[in-house]
Hints:
By secondary structure, the chain is mainly alpha-helical. The chain has helices at 3-24, 33-43, 49-52, 54-60, 63-86, 90-95, 97-125, 136-148, 152-162, 168-191, 198-221, 224-244, 249-258, 267-280, 282-290, 300-328, 334-342, 348-358, 364-399. Helix 12 (224-244) packs antiparallel against helix 13, helix 17 (334-342) runs antiparallel to helix 19 and helix 18 (348-358) runs antiparallel to helix 19 (364-399). The longest helix has 36 residues, at 364-399.
Amino acid sequence: MSTTEMFLLALLIIFSLPYLVWRLTSIDRFAPLVVMQIIGGVALGPGVLGAAFPAYYAFIFRPAVVETLNGIAWWGVMIFVWIAGLELDLKQAWQRRLETGVCAGLALVVPLAFGCAAAILLLALKDGWGGPLGARWQVVLGIGMACAVTALPILVLFMEKLEILREAMGQRVLRYASLDDIAIWSILALILLDWNRIGRQAIFIIGFAATAWLIRKVTRRLPECDRWYGALVWLAACGFAADWCGLHFMVGAFLAGAVLDAEWFDQERMALFRDHVLLAVMPVFFLSTGLKTNWDAGGLAVFGAAALLLLASVSGKILGLSLAGKVLKWPKGEAALIGWLLQTKALIMIIFANILLDRQIISPETFTALLLMAIASTMLTMPVVTPKLRQLKHGASQVF
């Protein structure tokens, strides 16, 4: 078969198998399709499909096909991260800065500390968790930050399913997650600082600040139809500049969205655009993520590391929100509910871990462990949150 035919066959597998499993089983009650697509990407990778049918796997996912899929994945995830940056609502966070700062700070710092402690333990027990270009502090901080990440897009999907997105509770959770999003990408930029390219990075920061001011002035004056096209040009430019200076094109993609105002774009159209990217392009990214998993080198240690990181991530997030609940005097049960919602990891954590792997800060074994942790934490959310939300609403109705 030609490369084009193999590419189309790969797309057929990528889009059909995860959807059929999700629709024909009960998984749709616990997680949106995107979670099944992430699992499908892992299953179609070398650790499952490649191990079971090595000849078949090598036949379909030949290097030329994988390179083509990677190009689509890069652009798709750049658009997705740009939307995540654009949809940050910092005005609401500033209006309620004390509450938001306390909650978002504890929701980030506690699981970050737990994750760093888990990383230090892993590095002490076994070599091979750090990548060839990763300093010890970068590995520890990177793993710790992965344990603190909240996947804002998945969180929105979950709250839509729970019918709380437009309620006061849902808007509060979005504020906390939005503030943490900024911290996540800021710390990632710190981890990726390259002292050999510090001159380039200084040029990027200064140039970005000046250009962003100009882009904001120009974009505000454009009709909306031109804003969309101009934003994609701006996205490509920021991605290139950030990668050129050694940060990573996804850091540039996030910054490209963060400096624009969401109100400049029709919100219904933006939500539809995000859904279309998730539907049509992101499954290719999930497969390219699955192709990076490594099960053989780490063996059972990978699963042990994933369990340790899951424990650090979930317990850290729940403890952080419990402390916030005590400080802010929340009603009983509210802190646990918000904590479980904010510990949702998939998508943003997978993007975060992909960047660390691309920059060779973490090893493929660590990436696989983080990927397993992200899937498990996300799958836990709906079964735990649904009864907690029911109890909280029942308690509120009893009061009135």
